[in-house]
Amino acid sequence: MKTPFLFPNAFKPVGWILFVPAFLLSVSISVFNIHTEDYLVCRVFAFANENFLGSVTNSFSFIENSIVDELCLLCLIVGGIFVCFSRLKNEDEFISKIRYESLVWATYCNYGIVLFLTFFIYGTPFLNVLFYNTFTLILFFIIRFHYKLYQLRKVSENEE
């Protein structure tokens, strides 16, 4: 089956190599409240920069900033997209159907959770909800899609 919007199968291992360490690092930073401000500090261009009091300073200028969080998010998103949208070796219509249903399911779950949390989490903690929302859709899709593939393989093995 021709699926022009999918990456070649070779992108999937690269996606896992990017996604898994970035996911583990992001969860570790969040759970253990690790401060990353002193690691990988680089001079970067900022459209806007905010000081600790919330006032915007240094718009459209170069600033010193830790890029750990940006690199984690980059690896999470790029790796996740490679894992989600890399063609399987045996991609057929049924796999495409599973892929489509998993994407719809992940979208409903993701935005259902975001809508629910919108009414119960306020202030600065809500920024964490928005941060996690950047990759939870990908995470939900990966979990659902690979679970459905596992179920399909299990049924196929039982029929043999």
Description:
The chain has four helices and four strands. By secondary structure, it is mainly alpha-helical. The chain folds into two domains: 1-87, no CATH class; 92-160. A two-stranded antiparallel sheet has the order 1-4. It has a two-stranded antiparallel sheet with strand order 2-3. The two termini are 25 Å apart.
Q: Keywords, please?
A:
single chain, 160 residues, mainly alpha, two-stranded antiparallel sheet, 4 helices, 10% strand
Compact summary:
This protein has 160 residues and is mainly alpha-helical. Helix content is 62%, strand content 10%. The protein folds into 2 domains: 1-87, no CATH class; 92-160.
Largest sheet: 2 strands, antiparallel
Q: What overall form do the CA principal axes indicate?
A: elongated
Q: Give the total of beta strands.
A: 4
Q: Give the radius of gyration.
A: 19 Å
Spatial strand sequence of the major β-sheet = 1-4
Structural class: mainly alpha
Instruction: State the distance separating the first and last CA atoms.
Output: 25 Å
- Residues in β-strands, percent: 5-15%
How large is the count of helical segments?
4
Estimated helix fraction: 55-70%
Helix and strand string, N-terminal first? HEEEEHHH
Sequence stretches where pLDDT stays below 50 over 5 or more residues: none
When the domains are counted, the total is 2
